[in-house]
Amino acid sequence: MLRSRALTLTALAALATAGCTADPVATTPAPAPEDAPVTTASPTPTPDPAPAGFTSSSRRLTDAEQAAMRGVTWHPGCPVPLTDLRVVRLAFHDFAGRRRTGRLVVHRDTVADVRQVFEQLWALGFPIRRMRPIEAYGGDDFASIEADNTSAFNCRAKTGSSATWSHHAYGRAIDVNPLENPYVLHGRTTHDGSVPYLDRSAARPGVLREGDPVVAAFDAIGWYWGGRWHDPVDHQHFSAMPD
């Protein structure tokens, strides 16, 4: 009996103690702060490149170019071998002010002069109709002029002669805008498109006249201008060789 009572008192004491003790509060860890949103900077727009300025380059003739010239603008007996010629690629302004590139075939010892003078023409904004090696016209000087083509090397005789090589046959002469700057003999031209340009009194686009900066640019490299001849007068013609 005493043992049973003792057990009862012990149980009641345990219940009393439990009633005075609060249940532990379950704690939930605070949520981790969200990561800051990742922002990706928009790439800075790249402006369109400005139009390229004057450029020039030179190289030897390729095998294909030499093959195209043989029997057309060059043949055995010409005063210079094909290995002495160079292709010069040049930027120029056309008559609408657009940037173009063309090619001249010249003697290797004139390359520096040619690049220098056409850089000056670019800076002046001087317009050129087109610039292609004359084999594009079958070596026909008349056809090249009719196309108002600025050209250089062509192994041919001097105009009006069958016994003297033209300076073009040496790769040391350039004809610039031949319709606007005609070859004139006894006051006449053989090209209808050049007739309006027989009158040289007014400055016009692409026209070469005494005192113009383009003529001065060729003077600066020591070249000779056919516009200073008397009869014939060759307004288009510049040459590294004296007449």
Task: Tell me what the structure shows.
With 243 residues, the protein is an alpha+beta fold. The chain has one domain (56-239). The protein is 22% helix and 16% strand. The protein has helices spanning 2-19, 63-69, 111-124, 141-146, 213-220; strands spanning 56-60, 85-93, 99-107, 130-131, 149-150, 173-175, 183-184, 224-225, 233-234, 237-239. The strands form four sheets. The chain has a three-stranded antiparallel sheet, with helices on one face. It has a three-stranded antiparallel sheet with strand order 6-10-8, with helices on one face. Strands 4-5 form a two-stranded parallel sheet. Strand 4 (130-131), helix 4 (141-146) and strand 5 form a beta-alpha-beta unit. Helix 3 (111-124) packs antiparallel against helix 5 (213-220). The longest helix has 18 residues, at 2-19. It is globular, with a radius of gyration of 43 Å. Residues 1-51 have low confidence and may be disordered.
